[in-house]
Write a structure and sequence with these properties.
Layout (H helix, E strand, L loop, with lengths): L2 E5 L2 E4 L4 E8 L7 E7 L6 E6 L5 E3 L7 E6 L4 E6 L8 E8 L16 E2 L3 E6 L1
Parallel strand pairs: 2-11
Antiparallel strand pairs: 1-3, 3-8, 4-5, 4-9, 5-6, 7-8, 9-10, 9-11
């Protein structure tokens, strides 16, 4: 009965920054597979980045060097820091967590996760 709630989305001009947060209830992020995904209008949902069960981060090529994923264990919160934003970053952003023991964690794949947030919109203007 875990739940994820994203926040921090909004509108920003190209080159700006934004930080998204994902607060988990009912479970802990520690030792879980966790990540961020996004879906632009009319497009498929794609992996942005994530952290595997050993704490190793991975990112999609499109955001590498601009986005950073981190977590605050005390607050049970996952973050996505987005810098140098581009119009093509415009999308609904979702956080996801897999709590299933022994599951392979491929952070950029939707099938790796069993819990999803409802999403927060990010809009980047030219």
């Amino acid at each position: 009965q875990g739940q994820l709630v994203e926040s921090g989305g909004g509108s920003v001009q190209a080159g700006g920054s934004l930080r998204l947060s994902c607060v988990a209830s009912g479970y802990r992020y520690s030792r879980n597979c966790m990540g961020w995904f996004r879906q632009a209008a009319g497009k498929e949902r794609e992996g942005v980045g994530g952290i595997d069960r050993d704490g190793w981060p991975s990112y999609a090529d499109s955001v590498k060097g601009r986005f950073t994923i981190s977590e605050d264990y005390a607050k049970n919160t996952l973050y996505l820091q987005m810098n140098s934003l581009k119009p093509e970053d415009t999308a609904m952003y979702y956080c996801a967590v897999d709590t299933r023991i022994g599951r392979r964690c491929r952070v950029l794949l939707q099938s790796s996760y069993n819990y999803w947030g409802q999403g927060t919109q990010v809009t980047v203007s030219s």
